[in-house]
Amino acid sequence: MRRIDLSNFQVATSETARDINRRIVLNLIRTHQPISRADLARHSGLQRSTVSVIAEQLIQERWITEGANGHTPRGRRPTFLHLNKERVGIIGINIRPVMTKLALADLDANFLAQDSLETPQDPKQFVADLVPRVRKLMTARAGLTCEGIGVSLPGRVDLVSKRLVFAPNLGWRDVDLKTPLEKATGLPVELENAANSCALSEICFGRRAEGLRNLVVVTVSEGIGCGLILNHQLVQGSTGTAGEFGHAALVQDGLECSCGNRGCWEMYASNSAAVRYYSQATRGAKRRSIADERTISFENLLRLAEQGDSKAVDALQQMATYLGKGIAPLVTGLAPDMIVIVGEVTRAWRLVGPIIEETVKQHSFTRAETQIVPSDPITQPRLRGTIALVLLKHFGAPAVA
Ligand SMILES: [Zn+2]
Question: Are 91 and 148 in contact (CB under 8 A)?
Fold first, then answer.
């Protein structure tokens, strides 16, 4: 049962109902395209006449277009409707400590052009480097007008001020990215934590997670973040910082973390942790060259593991055990339908997946029927998540009691 928030609700006027029906129809077209008006009525439960009125309006506003005639066994041949991909463009920016990626996407969340830049340590310098690239992407596709920018961050965003509260792995604290980006581009900017935007994206575009009621996304990179969708709602907490399980203590009196605490989960289960395990195992082995002694990148560690390097395999397995140990309380406490792991480590899923599963089983006594699945790195889930932040305005359900 949905709880009614008596301090923040929207009265259901006929306008609200029209808006909701419009979003439902637009969303059904997006997920089922090409689709006929009759099928839209069948899927939505709306009257055929209501669907027709909404469809006409959406065609006039260029959100959708009518395509070829469909085939039915008898009677009139319906025309199919699909999204007008040329209607708007969206800029997505995925910020990570070493590299920031950006893309221009269409209304269907397909990437049309991409770019990347090194992430400087100074946020002001970052904005200065970023803006010309964003402007270039905005004009990358002739005739396509951009309507917004989605930004995902390795930290949490304050619900009210929309400032980045803290991002220990970036070394940024209390940073306003929204104002300078909006000023420089003239576009509205939506900011969200990377795990949250991945969770929203899984719900919007993920074929496995679409429509799921309870979903947890765990982003595994330089750190670890969690995005929680519970009862179809993104959990943000009182200030927007909910989901920071990466900084929950897993090991008592453990290693000091960049957040200032000790024994945080991400100190043991992130990419950086695996790199540390590998370095520790190789240090003191046979005398190595200076090049070998430099810290290996996680990419190279994955490559070594693929080639069968036993120390690289061990490092990944250790990381996987700690991933399982941190995921177990999420399964026990939240009993989500699905946990999606996002990050480069999913490329080694055959190696790490069974260890995560087994560790979760050992440490979660409820043994909830939670599926633990890897995201597909090919789909660039973190970058796609930024597009969802902007598209939700059109496809997401409004907050009604
Ligand atoms: Zn920490």
Answer: yes
> What values do phi and psi take at 80, rounded to 5?
-90, 145
Rounded to the nearest angstrom, the distance between the alpha carbon of 264 and the centre of ligand 1 is 5
Alpha helical stretches, state H, 294-380: 298-306, 310-334, 349-363
Q: Is 401's pLDDT higher than 50?
A: no
Give residue 256 CA to ligand 1 midpoint distance, Å: 8
Measured CA angle at 245 (ends 243, 246), to 5 deg? 120
159 pLDDT exceeds 70? yes
Ligand 1 center from residue 366 Cα (angstroms): 27
- Asked if the model's pLDDT at residue 2 lies above 60, the reply is no
Q: Tell me if 232 sits within 8 A of 213, measured CB to CB.
A: yes
DSSP string, 179-243: HHHHHHHSS-EEEEEHHHHHHHHHHHH-TTTTT-SSEEEEEESSSEEEEEEETTEE--TTTS-TT
CA distance 301 to 294: 13
Residue of higher predicted confidence among 397 and 155: 155
Q: Which positions ≥6 away from 286 have C-beta within 8 Å?
A: none
CB 340 within 8 A of CB 217: yes
Rounded distance between C-alpha atoms, residue 348 and residue 374, angstroms? 10
User: Could you tell me if 229 and 235 are in contact, meaning their C-beta atoms sit under 8 angstroms apart?
Assistant: yes
CB 246 within 8 A of CB 257: no
How many Å lie between the centroid of ligand 1 and the Cα of residue 244? Answer: 9
For 180-199, b where at least 16 C-beta lie within 10 A, e where not — what string? Answer: bbeebbebebbbbbbbbbbb
Q: Which residue has the higher pLDDT, 344 or 76?
A: 344
Q: What is the mean pLDDT of residues 350-357?
A: 97
Which are the contacts of 94, defined by CB distance < 8 A and separation ≥ 6? 100, 101, 102, 151, 152, 194, 382, 383, 385, 386
The CA–CA distances, whole Å, from 124 to 52, 108, 120, 150, 177 equal 50, 32, 9, 19, 9
138-143: average pLDDT: 92
